[in-house]
Each structure stands twice: as structure tokens, then as C-alpha cells.
Amino acid sequence: MYILLVGGGTLSFNLAKDLLLRSHEVLIVERDRERGEELSRLLGDVILRGDGCEATVLELAGAGRADTLIATTRADKDNLTACQIAKSRFRVPRTISTINDPRNEPLFKKLGVDVTISVTDIVLSNIEHQIPERSVMPLLEVEESGAELVSIKIPPDSGIEGKRLDEMQLPDGALITLVIAKNGAARAPAPDIILSEDDNIIALSPENETEALRSIFTGEPSTDSND
Amino acid sequence: MNIVIVGCGRVGGRLGTVLDAEGHKVTILDIDEDSFRFLGPSFRGEAIIGDGTDDDDLVRSDIDDTDVFIAATEDDACNLLAAQKAKVQFRVPKVVCRVYDPVQKDLFRDLGVETVTPTTVTVELLKDAIER
Fold this sequence. Notes:
- The complex is a heterodimer of chains A (about 230) and B (about 130).
- With about 230 residues, chain A is an alpha/beta fold.
- Helix content of chain A is about 30%, strand content about 25%.
- Chain A has seven helices and eleven strands.
- The longest helix of chain A is centred in the middle third of the chain and has 15 residues, at about 75-90.
- The mean pLDDT of chain A is about 90.
- Chain B is built from five helices and six strands, in the order βαββαβαβαβα.
- Chain B has helices spanning about 10-20, 55-60, 75-90, 105-110, 120-130, and strands spanning about 1-5, 25-30, 45-50, 70, 95-100, 115.
- Chain B has a six-stranded parallel β-sheet, with helices on both faces.
- The chains are: A alpha/beta (about 230), B alpha/beta (about 130).
- The interface of A and B includes residues 77 and 88 of A.
């Protein structure tokens, strides 16, 4: 099969590696030059640098003979556009898109994307099945920025129950993006929200500050101070 | 009429100002507060900081109650998602979308979204100017 991948993120990279091992023909369309070069070094000559949202680029990529197009960028708008052009202009039989904002899933289906995969939903459902001992759960590496998206669960008896979010002293560069209660209710990180036991704190954190962040929201001493 | 415009660049900002002066109720959305400088001093409509492809931000801009929706950002993909959302999900009666890549036009016609393609329009105008 000829499989076209739009977006050269971690997901796409691993997907390509696997598909190549299974002897499929693969081409990754990646917008960023440096990332494209990096992927070429890792995977060989299977990268096309360009914007996968543009019909001319998809044509150059041979979309006309592709069996499947898989769009995995971090922007839903780009994934949708790539799939729709593939479908309408190049008659690609199967289009697959990851979805970052889960609310977009029904719309994507309605607009003709054959398979939708809601990354956020999958991650969230996995968090619920995590082993309780692990208070920090890495969700996503933000490429090249040195930051990661993590989920931290507030353990019982942490002393954090009842505190306001703005009472928490965050490490430099850390950003709380979402607070998800035990019952699944998600709250925007307003300064005055009250934290409770079993809340999941979804935060963007510089990788070297994640341990400090964990310590703050679990009330446990940081292991970083040992070295 | 109630009109929602996504994207307050030179085009969106100017359009919003003109439609507002004509007496329409205009709500304009942009992710960058700075871009509201493109609105004329006479603008009395509502300017909201928000993402025209985000459900919550669209609801905040009263999309449920609007007669016309115009996607006028400088990013095709953003306009395409916003316009289709307005048409299919929020059932706005009239949706117009600015599309730079002429290739997308047919796709949009099928979906009932009107497109304006600055590239094609500019080419025609330049051609006219030469031939005149």
C-alpha cells in the first residue's frame, strides 16, 4: 500500500517506522525544514518538505495514487484540510485523522474523514487506568521546546485539598492547562478554583521542572534535591 | 442582520467596520488582541479575543443567533474549519469563506459555503489593468 502521512511529529515518525517494516510505501509530508532533515536522517528518503494542506504539495506527494492518507498534526484545522483535499481532489480511498479537540470528532466524521482518532480522549481514558503509585503521567512531549504535557494526580493527605490554585507556587515556565476532577469534570485553571484530592492537574512543564511540579502538587519531597 | 467575522486583519477589520457603519450587529473574533487595531474608530460592534475554530469561542460570539458568518483569516485551513463548523454544526444560514488556494473552491461549493478567492480576484484585476 502507498500511505501518505501529513505531519512529521513523534506519532507519525513511529507510524512510518512500523509501516516501512511491513513493506508499505510511505511518504511523510512535513512543513518544518529542520524536522524534515531530522526525519530523513532517521528514516531515509521518505520525507517531502511542504505544507500538507496545499493541493499542489499533495499532488507532488503522489496523492493521486495513495491508498491512505493519515493526518497527525497538532492542528485540527490542518488535519481536516489535508483529509478533505485528499478525498475531494485526489479520491484517496481512505483518510484518517487524529483529533486534538475531542469536540471536533463528530464534525470531522460528518465532513467525510473516514477514520477519526481522538488523541485527548484516548489519553484521558488511559489516565483513569493508571497505577495509583504513579502520581505523574507524561502525556505528550512538545517537540523541541523542551517542555512536556503531564498529568499529576493530587494524592490523599497531601495537604493540598481545599487550597486555591493561585496559592500554589509554580516552578518557572510551568503552566496549568486544565484541572480534571475525579468525576471527570474538567475545569479551566482559573486562579480561584479550589483543589481537591484526586484532581488531575494537566500542566505544561519544562522537562527539568516536572519533578518540582510533582512535588508541589503531591506534597511529597522532590527527589531532584538529592543530586 | 447579525454578522460574525472571524479574523480581524486588514480585510476582516475593514469589513467589520463597514458592515457596522451600515447598521448591522457585528461581532468580530481574533486570537490576537493587537489585531483589533484594524477596526475603524467608529466601530461599535463587539470584538472578542478567541479562536474561530473553537466551539466555546464561537458560542461566546453568539454564533447560534447569527445570520451571516464570514471566515476571513489569512490561514486557509483555519477558514475552512471555521466555515464548515458554522455551516454544518451551527447551521448559520449564510457562510462566506476567504480561500487563498483556488483548488478548494469546488469542495466548498458542494458544501454550500460561498468562497471568495483573493488570489483569483487579484489576478483578474491585474489582467484587466494590463489589457485596458
